[in-house]
Amino acid sequence: MYALAFGIGTKNARDEWLEVYFPAPLFHPEPALVDTVASVVDYQGGNVDIETDTTRLQTLSQIWSGNSHASLMTQLAKTVRPVVVTILETDGKPQTTPETYLKLHLLSHRFVLPNQQNLDGIFSLLPNVAWTDQGAVDLEEIDQRQLQARMAGTVLEVAAVDKFPKMTNYVVPPGVRIAHSARVRLGAYLGEGTTVMHEGFMNFNTAAMGPNMVEGRISQGVILGAGSDLGGSASTAGTLSGGGEIYITIGKNCLISANAGTGIPLGDNCTIEAGLYITPGVIVQIMDEHKNTVKSVKARELAGQDDMLFIRNSRNGAVECRTNRKAVTLNKTLHGHN
Amino acid sequence: MYALAFGIGTKNARDEWLEVYFPAPLFHPEPALVDTVASVVDYQGGNVDIETDTTRLQTLSQIWSGNSHASLMTQLAKTVRPVVVTILETDGKPQTTPETYLKLHLLSHRFVLPNQQNLDGIFSLLPNVAWTDQGAVDLEEIDQRQLQARMAGTVLEVAAVDKFPKMTNYVVPPGVRIAHSARVRLGAYLGEGTTVMHEGFMNFNTAAMGPNMVEGRISQGVILGAGSDLGGSASTAGTLSGGGEIYITIGKNCLISANAGTGIPLGDNCTIEAGLYITPGVIVQIMDEHKNTVKSVKARELAGQDDMLFIRNSRNGAVECRTNRKAVTLNKTLHGHN
Amino acid sequence: MYALAFGIGTKNARDEWLEVYFPAPLFHPEPALVDTVASVVDYQGGNVDIETDTTRLQTLSQIWSGNSHASLMTQLAKTVRPVVVTILETDGKPQTTPETYLKLHLLSHRFVLPNQQNLDGIFSLLPNVAWTDQGAVDLEEIDQRQLQARMAGTVLEVAAVDKFPKMTNYVVPPGVRIAHSARVRLGAYLGEGTTVMHEGFMNFNTAAMGPNMVEGRISQGVILGAGSDLGGSASTAGTLSGGGEIYITIGKNCLISANAGTGIPLGDNCTIEAGLYITPGVIVQIMDEHKNTVKSVKARELAGQDDMLFIRNSRNGAVECRTNRKAVTLNKTLHGHN
Questions:
Q1: B171–chain C nearest CA distance, Å
Q2: Mutate to test the interface with A, among B132, B181, B183 (most CBs of A within 10 A)
Q3: Which residues contact B292 (CB under 8 A, 6 or more apart)?
Q4: Which has fewest Cβ within 10 Å: A215, A299, B45, C156?
Q5: Which residues of B touch A148 (CB under 8 A)?
Q6: How far is CA A98 from CA A122, A143, A221, in A?
Q7: What residues of A are in contact with residue C133 (Cβ under 8 Å)?
Q8: Neighbour count for residue B265 (Cβ, 10 Å)
Q9: What single string gives the DSSP state of each residue in B103-160?
């Protein structure tokens, strides 16, 4: 059994799910618990969403009387919104909107790392939604809702029109700081001690293992290793648009400086100087300790290596790679009190 | 007749308009419709704003009984806020706040493209406003409103202090995604299939013709052609501050990669590599197919040409332009379900 | 006497301050006023926070009857939240959360410039807080609050999880524009005529002296001189993470162009071309008026000098510094109506 979770969701006028919030998803749930749920909601196996009702939730609350699951069931029984139980027997290709939302929750709840679960085809399962201060609104209804708000002397705040919601309205992981939550999508994995500053960005299916300082952009599929610092506006090439086809991983204790970027994976203790973008096709001069060129290679041949320091020679414009002698140390004051 | 629209607005204590929301502006409206409005609101010609009242709105609702205009009139008749009808006989220089707001709406409703209508002097017509969760607030009242909210145990959310509001609280065009709406001003033109990611920015009087992936900044006056991809933090030089005096246009199927930028207009199928900024004065080495320099020119002489690939030679730091052999193809998955 | 202020704050379930809003802080208050407060709230000297009550606030209101302090006391007496009076005899090292909040207010109210007051150790005094549309929420309570909101059919908007709040929910200084307030922290000093665009960022303990166009990032400790323009995504190296140990100051009438950056302080009338990052260790060719190299130095040796124009030679990749002949002039239309 891959995962099981109870969620509260929003549906549009055509009874289609717009989004689902799973407050306490279970990863690899205990068989006994699954059996109990199965008997109450009539689960027959497979990956399914089962809408449930007050009676069944109260039954589960009584069965689990006294433990934390019971408390959640009691609360869910009182909601005015539709409640769904999503049960994933396997990590198969997602088939529904609630299933997709559950998998994004699993990432943000730190149950799985990026690229570890099947997310094939989720773009077509995630409806494009207006995210407003009245909750998720179907795009066919948005004009009328906006007009109604204005007539009442208020404004409908439309914070985004997107397939993905912001993470913090679903999951607030412990031990992190997120200076501006609009830039972290549900499905991001923020490890303990991660700080995402205002300029930081984390797409779905990304990770900052923590502790990390994230002031740059972590593209879909990219993992930032422990102790690494992604500078302001620093870019990690993704696979969805513009970038290549290999997933980028940044190792531990790396520094991608401000306005820099990488299109190749990096090992541990690597530094890219401010303003330099290492694309896979860049010709890099490998320098010895006397600053003489040993050989020149395409950057992609250096993928994943440790202890590299990349600079652009300010006398002659050549991109150089030296051995990195100064490992990065994150400012403990900044991360010590998350 | 250039445009006609009914709007709901906010006024300050001095009876001045702070902002106006026009739910369904009409561009080049039919003469018969204009005549009807003119007779009811006593319009005598020219470019004017006429505040109207419940009685007149109900009269129009009866005259138009059964069509969509009638429905809007019925709803506007019920609003608690002041209602204005703005009638622009010509595309003259804007004279009032409602007129300016109407012209910005025309752009976001895709009636006109950037640089096609007269927006001279609008900065002095747009009051600087605190955009809050209680609507638009005059800056002279903001301190007291903030204190009152705190006294009541709440917080007045001041999302911006600016002359321009965010587009999505006024217009949500169909077939687009906007990951973070605070970065798209009213007056932006987003064509069908446009995705503006979290790092994307569109000023007023800009266009993404659609489909487009916008992860960079589109400065005032700039148009991004169909199929083009503006990478993360990519910059297009504007004319308002810092940039030069010519409007930048990016052609079709271009890729301005992450952290790159352009200060010259580009034709179709152009690419600028990640991290490279092409300012008008940059000396560019024009390369032939054997990678030999044919000649060197200032970038501004290349303005508007097609099929250019710009890179900075990573061996010697020279900025080079080759013929672009690989046209960009946007990821269909990303844009197919807007 | 350094400062005195009455604030309304939020406490968590353990009676600890999460944040304090000081609507009208007094800097170097008059001795007579301090004496009055001292007698009513029983102040014995030193730097202290004294929680007060309705009776004392009403007493002060009567004593000050008729002046603006009286009006504030009357209003504070009615609040449902706890009220504190924070009195700082000296600019000592902060000891409490209210004290820290008061010092951040002093910056945003333009009473002090960055680096002028003692902010040692404030990271440990500022609790990490969920900033929501229901106000500041303790992180231990956030999951339950989120669930409760969903059960009620609403969403708890968690805008940030951070130690610092956004400035505009505490202070809206006169004569500024802030296109997107999430990117300006409490503790930023925005001088008259400052415009912070969507891509601009100002940390706590930063200043834009005004008038300024801020489209880039002002790191903690950095001051931007009057008339200077910080381009889109332009970076100023801070001391907290990634940068060096010297505070960066940018002089008057400078232009740090889009996607550029500086790791050294600059004097007046300096320009850095788009996309170029001047780190302290960069070797810079000093050019004469005939564009011949006079000498080459490390950028840090140029720290604080006036009239420098930095470019990267587009023929050979060398970083060059010439005498800047064209001082920047900010667009008066943009700033004239703040």
A1: 18
A2: B181
A3: none
A4: B45
A5: 75
A6: 11, 26, 21
A7: 133
A8: 21
A9: HHHHHHTTSS-TTSS--TTGGGTS--EEEETTEEEETTTHHHHHHHHHHTT----EEE
Closest CA in chain C for residue B157: C169
The token duo for C214 is: 């801020």
Query: What is the Cα–Cα distance from A4 to C8, expressed in whole angstroms?
Result: 44
Q: Is B180 helix (H, G, I), strand (E, B) or coil?
A: coil
Cα–Cα separations (whole angstroms), residue C81 to B149, C53, C71, C78 = 11, 10, 18, 9
- Alpha-carbon span B284 to B278, nearest angstrom: 9
Give the model confidence (pLDDT) of B158-197 as tens digits.
999 999 999 999 999 999 999 999 999 999 999 999 999 9
Distance of residue A135 Cα from the nearest chain C Cα, in angstroms:
6
Cα distance between residue A279 and residue A277, in whole Å: 6
In chain C, what residues touch A176 (CB-CB under 8 Å)? 161
Residues of B in contact with C274 (CB under 8 A): 235, 237, 261, 263, 277, 279
Q: Residue A338: CA atoms inside 13 Å, Cβ hemisphere, count?
A: 27
The model's pTM is 0.96
Written as six digits, the tokens of B170 are 């006024």
Q: The tokens of C159 are what?
A: 């805008």
Bond before A265 cis per omega within 30 degrees: no
Positive or negative torsion for Cα C144, C145, C151, C154: negative
Q: Which amino acid is at A269?
A: N
Query: In whole angstroms, what is the distance from residue C186 CA to residue C206 CA?
Result: 10
Q: Which two tokens stand for residue B50?
A: 């006429």
Answer whether A9's CB lies under 8 Å from A98's CB: yes
Predicted complex: ipTM over 0.90 = yes
Q: Do B263 and C255 touch (CB under 8 A)?
A: no
Distance from CA of A97 to the nearest CA of B (A): 14
Compare all CA atoms of chain B with the CA of A314 and give the residue at the minimum distance: B317
Q: Is A75 helix (H, G, I), strand (E, B) or coil?
A: helix
All domains of chain B, ordered by start, with CATH? Answer: 3-126 (3.30.70.2010), 130-162 (3.30.60.70), 167-335 (2.160.10.10)
pLDDT at C238: 73
Amino acid at A194: T
CB contact under 8 A, C318 and A318: no
Distance CA A37, CA A14 (A): 28
**Cα distance between the two ends of chain B:** 34
Asked if C128 lies within 8 A of A338 by C-beta distance, the reply is: yes
In the DSSP assignment, the letter for residue B267 is -
- Of A21, A182, A313, nearest to C150 by CB-CB distance is A21
Cβ–Cβ below 8 Å for A8 and C143:
no
Q: How far apart are CA B245 and CA C199, in angstroms?
A: 22
β-pair partners for A177: A195
Chains contacting B (3+ CB pairs below 8 angstroms): A, C
Convert the pLDDT of each residue in B30-64 to its tens digit: 999 999 999 999 999 999 999 999 999 999 999 99
C-alpha separations of B16 from B13, B50, B324, C95 in Å: 7, 13, 54, 47
Q: Verify whether the Cβ–Cβ distance C318 to A317 is below 8 Å.
A: yes
Q: In the structure encoding, which two tokens stand for residue A139, read together?
A: 């795009």
Q: Do A23 and C128 touch (CB under 8 A)?
A: no
As a whole number, mean pLDDT of residues A201-218 equals 98
Q: Is A51 a catalytic residue?
A: no
Nearest CA in chain A to B167: A158
| Contact residues, chain B, for C333 at CB < 8 Å | 123-124
